[in-house]
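user: At home tonight, take the chain set out below, taking as long as you need, and be ready to discuss the fold:
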Amino acid sequence: MFTPIEAFLGWRYTRAKRRSHFVSFISAIAMLGVALGVAALITILSIMNGFESELRDRILGMEAHVVVTAENGPLKNWRRFAESAELHPSVVGSAPYIRREAMLTHHENAHGAVIRGIEPVSELNVSVIANKVGMEDLSALQPGSFSVILGRGLAELLRARIGESVTIISPEPARTPVGAIPRLRRFKVVGIFEAGVHEYDTSMALVHIDDAAKMFRYRDGVTGVRIKVRDPFNAPRIAVDLDNSLSGITMTTLDVVDWTENNVNLFRALKTEKIVMFVILALTIAVAAFNLIATLVMVVSEKSSEIAILQTLGMTKKSILTVFLFHGGLIGVVGIVAGTIIGVLLAINVDVIIGSIEQILRFKILSPDIYYISEIPSELKLRDVAVAVLVAAVLCLLAPLYPALLASRTAPARALRYD
């Protein structure tokens, strides 16, 4: 425990004196290094959390939590599977879909795309597509109308506008007596959506499921059934339950896949990147801690005569040790507190700060043509703040040990020989 005299001396050594401005300046630099390291760690972890959360929400807004497909060919009697799946207490809704790849052309522009045939009413139960498109545009997808809703990026690539027509060319040609000819059909653009994920915005087109069935000759089958559950994080467990229950009502071999399996590499890469960034920034705090050690060694060297005088007045080695432990700990604590405040403020206002920087520089940091997300999100978590503070506290409390031991071993006779 610190006594008042030891705490007073430790505090006194942190303040500048007329002949020790350089040492105080180095102490301030050490304090600033700790603060910057903690602030950077909190801010970067919050940004990584924001990226993961934002990407997950955008992907789950367009993709189903669980998808049921047949192992070979179209899924027959899909209504039976949908009704059985909705009996599960954790299932919110289901919707059929047809998914095929095709070529879209508009005048001289052509681009490959994923055609998703949907049933507009049922689709509202499994995705937020209505929020991305609008109910008026979604309701325009009527069976037999051969209407299409394009992703914004795809529409820009094709230079197609609402009201114009695009041609969808199936990769499977039609067999005729004169040979194979391309199977194509003109679709009217009735809407444009923006999912916020580059992959969907530039390569997805939505049509009515009946029109997709006619275009790709699906007859009475569909590609699969998309299912939404109450808690997306329980999707793997629910997928196993559905696999067991649905397999018992048919002889068809089913594939029941949850969203974590479809995007496992992406989210695994995000977690790995977060761990790597944590290690790198923790090393930054370690560098600040080494700077703190160097600062305290300089303080001990500069105060050697004062340490000797204190010893001659009766202060024990343990008390000297405590003085410099308090001195180093005080520098570390102030740096940690300042860094935590700065890091939390940066994490909360990172979108405003980045937006201002982009306006000043007139440069987009995250180009939507390259990245999934064009804005820098941030999600501050108490757990990350606690981990950052704990790592910094351990490093900064261990740093004063060697300088304090060095001070406690000061020989009064040697230190005062030339004073």
Remarks:
- The chain has two domains: 4-58+266-415, 64-261.
